[in-house]
Amino acid sequence: MHELSQEGKYACSYANIEAAQAARGNAERGVETICSSVASQVDLYLKQNMLATWLYSTGTKVALMCGDVSTHNFDEMMLKANVS
Length: 84
Hints:
By secondary structure, this protein is an all-alpha fold. The protein has four helices and no strands.
């Protein structure tokens, strides 16, 4: 992971998402846990907080509207969340 990131061609990070298992049937809480874990690990390993900044502002609104993403129109969700 570190070697790939150092080459400059890729940006690699690792996130352990086992904590999402504690949500047990609460998909919203599970997805929130996964997103938070990924964002914090990108910040830690890559020293880039853009993902966390987005997640805790606009991203949260989008995630709450998603529900079952397979049944929604992504562009429509982004418009409702006021995301360009």
